[in-house]
TrEMBL record:
<keyword id="KW-0418">Kinase</keyword>
<dbReference type="InterPro" id="IPR036890">
    <property type="entry name" value="HATPase_C_sf"/>
</dbReference>
<keyword id="KW-0808">Transferase</keyword>
<keyword id="KW-0902">Two-component regulatory system</keyword>
<protein>
    <recommendedName>
        <fullName>histidine kinase</fullName>
        <ecNumber>2.7.13.3</ecNumber>
    </recommendedName>
</protein>
<dbReference type="InterPro" id="IPR036097">
    <property type="entry name" value="HisK_dim/P_sf"/>
</dbReference>
<dbReference type="GO" id="GO:0000155">
    <property type="term" value="F:phosphorelay sensor kinase activity"/>
</dbReference>
<dbReference type="InterPro" id="IPR003594">
    <property type="entry name" value="HATPase_dom"/>
</dbReference>
<keyword id="KW-0175">Coiled coil</keyword>
<keyword id="KW-0067">ATP-binding</keyword>
<dbReference type="InterPro" id="IPR005467">
    <property type="entry name" value="His_kinase_dom"/>
</dbReference>
<dbReference type="InterPro" id="IPR003661">
    <property type="entry name" value="HisK_dim/P_dom"/>
</dbReference>
<dbReference type="InterPro" id="IPR004358">
    <property type="entry name" value="Sig_transdc_His_kin-like_C"/>
</dbReference>
<dbReference type="GO" id="GO:0005524">
    <property type="term" value="F:ATP binding"/>
</dbReference>
<keyword id="KW-0547">Nucleotide-binding</keyword>
<feature type="domain" description="Histidine kinase">
    <location>
        <begin position="37"/>
        <end position="244"/>
    </location>
</feature>
<dbReference type="Pfam" id="PF00512">
    <property type="entry name" value="HisKA"/>
</dbReference>
Length: 254
């Protein structure tokens, strides 16, 4: 454990030195950003685990069982955090098995997975023609929509609200509009929305949801952009190929 914490601290130092250079060369390449943020994010829970372990070792002979239990629970919580971070990164980097998907069915399956977590005061409208198809990996696409739905639920919160998913047919690719009537996103946050570990939810968010969405859509030869206005709501515009071999040439979104 000590070795791991030391190694991560060293890596952070090294990355910090290189960050300036990387920023100059290009707006931190996605991989560089991820590596830096990852080291940073893993470092916090690992430091906490390390400290709890040290206290536990010192207190091992002590009488206070409740205190030791608390420390172990703390360790367990931090390990879960590390696991969640690592799992999300592993999930999005899989190459995927693409196939032609009926989007409406996939969205219904996604909502089925989310059953019990959908706030009752939120209305969900799927305005997707039955034969609206996209070419993508179904598991990855479900993950995309799970993350988008969860964000909308969290943004709308206890208020009444609507989520509308629309499909628009184009020649080689299809466009999905995923909108909610939540509070919207301030203009200053919009450029960071897909960055790893960008969150406005404090300890309740990892800031990984949209980073994963972005990478999964890229993995499936698609593109994604966001339009949002405070007080009005948020729309994600996703382009995906209709069939195998179609690549979306949309520089604005890349
Ligand atoms: N539909 C939305 N409406 C308003 N704000 C949103 C919406 N979706 C995302 N955001 C903002 O973007 C931030 C990043 O979203 P993202 O899903 O990446 O992370 P998160 O939800 O904070 O944490 P998690 O990793 O658990 O998903 C959120 O913290 C929130 O501020
Ligand atoms: Mg999220």
């Amino acid at each position: 454990m000590i070795l791991l914490v030391e190694a991560i601290n060293k890596m952070l130092e090294e990355l910090n030195k290189r960050k300036e250079y990387l920023i100059q060369t290009e707006r931190l390449a996605t991989f560089g950003t991820l590596l830096f943020s990852l080291a940073h994010e893993l470092n916090n829970p690992l430091n906490n685990i390390y400290t709890s372990c040290q206290i536990l070792l010192e207190e091992l002979e002590g009488e206070n069982l409740e205190f030791k239990r608390e420390l172990l629970l703390e360790i367990e919580k931090e390990i879960e955090r590390v696991q969640k971070i690592i799992r999300s990164i592993l999930d999005y980097s899989k190459p995927g098995q693409k196939e032609k998907i009926k989007l409406k069915n996939l969205l219904n399956e996604t909502l089925y997975l989310l059953r019990g977590k959908i706030p009752p005061q939120i209305e969900i409208n799927l305005e997707i023609p039955e034969d609206f198809m996209v070419f993508a990996d179904p598991q990855q696409l479900k993950q995309v929509f799970i993350n988008l739905f969860k964000n909308s639920f969290e943004a709308i919160g206890e208020s009444k609200g609507k989520i509308i998913v629309k499909g628009l047919e184009n020649k080689d690719y299809n466009t999905i509009y995923f909108s909610d009537t939540g509070p919207g996103i301030p203009a200053k946050d919009l450029p960071h929305i897909f960055d790893p570990f960008f969150t406005t939810k404090g300890n309740k968010g990892y800031g990984l949801g949209l980073f994963i969405v972005y990478n999964l859509i890229k993995n499936n030869q698609g593109s994604i952009k966001i339009e949002s206005e405070v007080g009005k709501g948020t729309t994600f515009i996703i382009n995906l190929p209709k069939e195998e071999g179609k690549v979306i040439n949309d520089r604005e979104n890349s």
